[in-house]
Task: structure prediction
Amino acid sequence: SNPTSPIKRRVSQQSIIEWAGQVVTVGGDAPVRVQSMTNTDTADAIATAIQVKELAKAGSEIVRITVDNPAAAAAVPAIREQLDKMDVYVPLVGDFHYNGHTLLNDYPDCAQALSKYRINPGNVGQGAKRDMQFSQMIEMACRYKKPIRIGVNWGSLDQDLLAKLLDQNAVSATPKELNQVMAEALIQSALQSAQRAQELGLPSNQITLSCKVSNVQDLISVYRDLAVRCDYPLHLGLTEAGIGSKGIVASTAALSVLLQEGIGDTIRISLTPEPGAPRENEVIVAQEILQTMGLRHFTPMVIACPGCGRTTSTYFQELASRIQSYLRHQMPIWKKNHPGVESMNVAVMGCIVNGPGESKHANIGISLPGTGESPAAPVFVDGVKVKTLRGDKIAEEFQLIVDEYVKNTYQN
Ligand code: SF4
Result:
């Protein structure tokens, strides 16, 4: 976590996810973790392992895979094996609905290969079967010493609990009051399930909770309430956030409010991928939310102006985007050899209006020539103008200056 962040995190227990000598902590003093989920058919072990690898490479610290049928459960050990062979150190969380109790029981190698189980209390059966099947899953978690996430979802709420609360409240209830009943049912479902898991022997610090809804204001109010009613680590995510900018904006709006209040120990951005868009985008968005809020640093940030009529060519956008990609691409190497580089800021500005001012505030900044300006690009390093670049090799020369700065400033 970032010790200089002004955000005071909610006090929570720490859940430990362990596998093959590796550990990822969630909650307590652990940084807010980024997680994601595959969308491959889990039964296709190779395709799933490749996507997990891509998500982990992009920065996902926990990856969830759906385990929805016997073929998927049978493939889990092979997925883990492939990842270990590729030196991909990321815990796999099995996402179970309806038949998790059977799959965990029938496929012990799957139960063992997973590092954590996600249980949706709304999807473990109804009536008398519900407690029995939930108990079977918790017994597996105890037997294999796996932490769990009790993940309640607005779209699959425990119908028995909802009906009970509606019975108590539905008479003359307004739509707003009914919404509050739904929210209360979500929270109670999570808390009662956690309580039951503890009664069945699961240590309290091995439980993470989530209560996902798809409306921003509902999510904020549900989590605010949940946060004061327990000290389990909380997983945040706006479920079914949507496609493209809508999904990104809605998730950012909801999660930022909660994170600013110190709520949230791990996050996932549930974006509907646009055709051809890489799955890793959800990881990048999650990292960017945490980084722009000052909670964590993952990769050097590019500060760029939006451009306007003073930027007459696309050169400025190209340079900003080229530098952003370059920084991301270099991070795995820099991270090993140049600790602290992830907090570096690089400004790429379109003209003299705000260019020099913004560039001076960044570690390195360049102000490109706008319309009518002399064809020169002043470069600032730690607030001091060190050079003026000209000609058609500005991008290459600026990149070299960035390289040099990283090598000289962030040393082992
Ligand atoms: Fe336009 Fe210059 Fe401002 Fe960029 S810095 S938005 S180019 S005026």
